[in-house]
Write a structure and sequence with these properties.
Largest sheet: 2 strands, antiparallel
Subcellular location: Nucleus, Nucleolus
Structural class: mainly alpha
Helix content: 55-70%
Protein name: Nucleolar complex protein 3 homolog
Number of helices: 33
Pfam families: CBF (PF03914), NOC3p (PF07540)
Shape: elongated
Distance between the termini: 140 Å
Strand content: under 5%
Main location: nucleus
InterPro entries: ARM-type_fold, CCAAT-binding_factor, Noc3_N, Nucleolar_cplx-assoc_3
Length: about 800
């Protein structure tokens, strides 16, 4: 008979490739389940077989038949029981019956009577008596307790087969068998226990794992950089390592993957924004190169999006401080991952302002500028400042300004001042842009055909046509943004900035944001619309008069007011006398201590108030400021003295009649009143600049040079004239050049020579002889220690 052919075909390799991972796992589970079920069946059969052998051994011999006749009723009942227990052979086929007989001949030694030593397949004697069978069975005493025996494998000898047995311990048989089976299963499943590693071995193992991960990341990254269009799918493989589950290297590997993906995106990202394809574009037939480029762009955008989502999730996990189910990363490690994620977002914000999802990055970064963590806040503010500085067009700056303005308003102006200080880095020069658009970058006008025909010959018209064609091609190739669009973006940005500033001035005048607002207004005040000038000046004066500002903030207010009036405010007939009075009154708040840095703002204010508004400044006001500034130069640091004296030099050149302060003779009636806070009525013309003679003996050589120059009348030529490096610099530049921030003098100051001890007279020579003797006698007396009673002195003082 031929073997049955297996109709089930072996699946091909292609079919196996198409099979999903879930199907393969299900097949493996089914296979394991079948193996376990067959194992259980086999054990069950073995258990039944052992039970059968046990029953056969312990079976009691049936008593001999009684020769006497039994009652017919009992005989009938016994025959019926035998018929019920007997196998119904009449219902079986002949083939099946023959098969059962053959199996009985091939039965194992476990199924037969082990007491006989006959061969297994020996033929039974047909005429053997029944009594002999029972005689062969060993007899046991009924008084002795029966002991269970465990039948072992028999031993075959020359004489025959010798059975082997062993006593079984008295236990619950069923429970013992089940426990034994469970132990066997556990021994099969449980592997050898893992040996615990020492600290050094653990570190070595961790280092090996890290090296493997680094090499894998480096290999994938180099492949992507080598051919980005072909290997763009490997970005997904690198990004999948952001979910590293090995607790030993999970945090380090995730940080490495974040930095690696950041550098990859910075290198392979194109210099244009990728837009989604329309349905018409998808349906059209294209070349292979174009299709490859489209696949690269789609894969790049999708992976870039998933990367940003992963970074956002890391920051959220750190904010929420919740452990995940995997418990691979600890709560302490969340902060380190979040810092790396924020740093990556900041670099993407600056490096890829033109690419997709830039607005999403802005929305993530702006709230972190107000974060409680100082490191993260500084990183985000620095990134926004860098973006403002390098943004020439203004599109990215406008997006950031919109989000910051909305966030500040949503937080009810309770944010860090550093957020508003970033506005100072905006590259907005409205006046210069307007000048460029009006004068320089006027649109090119080409001649019409009639104009050419009237003014040019035929050959000239031909050359002119070729020249205009070339100019048009050059303009198209340049592809530069028009100044009109740039002006529009800058105007919209400034409007949002000023709205934010004015809201804070109106609603939160005692907010810590006020210094940043005043500093920003001082920088962009010349770009404010003329309609707001009157209201803004009133608000600034009320803020100054409230007395809630520091000296630096009040200087910013004065600077803002005069920036407004020096720009478009020239056409307005406004006399800011109250601002002159405030500055003149508060000049002596500056000193060589903490307020020395305020001199920089003071020099800028004086330049705007006196030099640029020379036509609106009276002589009395100029004299009063020169006199008070010379007095101020006596008690500030050397760099501040140099800046103040340089300002006085400019004022003496701007107002020539102020040289009367170098003369001792008084001009007009009255006496100089230095304590009066009104510069117009202090009679400064009746005093002299005696402070310059004190400054001429100053320890700093540059201060000495400036003082001597001013005493000589600030000449531009001659021996008392200044050198070009001093005369050509502004007061603010000189203040920065000779700064003492590094705790050193520039140039070095010479040390003064100390007098000899012999030249110094002793102190005793100044005292009277009687007084000297009295002092010596008092000092020679022995000091007596008396008990001190402070209660007496206390009582007398109370009385």
């Amino acid at each position: 008979m031929k073997a049955r052919r297996n109709k089930k075909q072996i699946p091909s390799f292609r079919k196996l490739l198409k099979t999903s991972k879930v199907k393969l796992e299900n097949k493996l589970k089914n296979k394991q389940f079948k193996q376990q079920s067959t194992l259980k069946k086999y054990r069950k059969e073995q258990r039944k077989l052992r039970q059968a052998v046990k029953d056969a051994v312990s079976k009691k011999p049936i008593p001999l038949e009684d020769p006497k006749e039994k009652p017919p009723g009992k005989r009938i009942e016994r025959e019926e029981e035998e018929e019920e227990e007997a196998l119904p052979l009449d219902m079986m086929d002949e083939d099946d019956l023959q098969l059962m007989r053959d199996l009985g001949q091939r039965a194992s030694f476990l199924t037969r009577d082990l007491s006989s030593s006959e061969p297994v397949h020996a033929k039974k004697r047909k005429h053997e008596h029944v009594i002999d069978k029972y005689e062969k069975i060993p007899r046991t005493l009924q008084t002795a307790p029966e002991k269970e025996l465990i039948h072992l494998l028999p031993i075959k000898d020359k004489s025959g087969i010798i059975p082997q047995t062993r006593e079984k311990p008295v236990t619950d048989s069923n429970q013992g068998e089940e426990d034994q089976e469970e132990l066997e299963l556990e021994e099969e499943i449980i592997e050898d226990p893992i040996r615990e590693l020492t600290l050094e071995e653990h570190l070595i193992e961790r280092r090996k794992k890290l090296e493997e991960k680094k090499m894998h990341i480096a290999a994938l990254g180099s492949a992507i950089l080598g051919d980005p269009e072909s290997n763009i799918k490997k970005l997904k493989e690198i990004r999948s390592m952001l979910t590293e589950q090995d607790p030993d290297v999970a945090v380090t590997v995730r940080k490495l993957v974040i930095i690696s993906l950041l550098e990859l995106f910075k290198d392979i990202t194109p210099s244009y924004k990728i837009r989604p394809l329309t349905e018409a574009e998808k349906s059209t037939k294209i070349r292979k190169e174009t299709q490859k480029l489209r696949e690269f762009e789609e894969g790049l955008v999708s992976q870039y999006k998933f990367y940003l989502e992963n970074l956002e999730q890391m920051i959220k996990d750190w904010k929420q401080r919740k452990l995940k189910k995997s418990n691979v990363v600890s709560l302490k490690a969340y902060k380190g991952l979040a810092e790396v994620a924020v740093r990556s977002l900041c670099e993407l914000l600056v490096a890829l302002p033109h690419f997709n999802f830039h607005n999403n990055i802005i929305v993530l970064i702006v709230p972190l500028m107000n974060d409680t963590s100082k490191l993260i806040s500084e990183m985000c503010c620095a990134a926004v400042k860098e973006l403002f500085k390098q943004d020439k067009l203004g599109q990215a700056s406008l997006g950031v300004i919109k989000v910051i303005s909305g966030f500040v308003k949503g937080q009810n102006y309770e944010v860090r001042p550093e957020m508003l200080k970033t506005f100072l880095c905006l590259r907005i020069k409205e006046v210069e842009v307007k000048k460029d658009t009006e004068d320089i970058n006027k649109p090119k006008k080409f001649m019409t055909f009639k104009e050419k025909r009237k003014t040019l010959s035929r050959m000239q018209r031909k050359w002119k046509k070729a020249e205009e064609k070339l100019e048009r091609e050059l303009l198209e190739a340049e592809a530069s943004e028009s100044t009109e669009r740039k002006l529009k973006l800058h105007t919209e940005t400034l409007n949002i900035v000023f709205v934010t500033y004015f809201r804070i001035l109106k609603t939160a005048q005692r907010s810590p944001l006020l210094p940043s607002v005043l500093e920003g207004l001082a920088k962009f005040a010349h770009l404010i619309n003329v309609e707001f000038f009157d209201d803004l000046l009133v608000v600034l004066h009320s803020v100054i008069e409230s007395g809630d500002l520091s000296y630096r903030e009040s200087l910013h207010c004065v600077q803002t007011a005069f920036h407004i009036l020096s720009g478009q405010g020239d056409v307005l007939n406004i006399d800011p006398m109250k601002f002159y009075t405030h500055l003149y009154k508060t000049l002596f708040k500056l000193h060589a201590g903490a307020t020395n840095e305020g001199v920089r703002i003071l020099l800028q204010c004086l330049d705007v108030m006196l030099t640029k508004r020379r036509k609106q400044v009276s002589q009395q006001r100029a004299l009063a400021f020169i006199k008070r500034l010379c007095t101020l130069a006596l008690h500030v640091l050397p760099n501040s003295s140099i800046g103040i004296l340089a300002t006085n030099r400019i004022l003496m050149h701007t107002f020539p009649k102020t040289d009367l302060l170098l003369d001792n003779e008084s001009q007009g009636s009255g006496v100089f009143l230095p304590e009066l806070d009104e510069p117009e009525y202090c009679n400064a013309q009746n005093t002299a600049l005696w402070e310059l003679h004190a400054l001429r003996r100053h320890y700093h050589p540059v201060v000495q040079r400036f003082a001597a120059h001013l005493i000589a009348g600030a000449p531009s030529e001659g021996s008392e004239a200044l050198k070009p490096e001093l005369s050509r610099r502004s007061a603010a530049e000189l203040f920065e050049t000779y700064s003492m921030a590094e705790m050193t003098f520039n140039p070095p100051v010479k040390s003064s020579c100390s007098k000899r001890k012999s030249e110094v007279s002793q102190g005793d020579s100044f005292l009277n002889e009687d007084l000297n003797q009295l002092i010596k006698r008092h000092c020679s007396e022995v000091a007596t220690h008396l008990p001190l009673d402070f209660s007496k002195c206390l009582k007398t003082s109370l009385q």
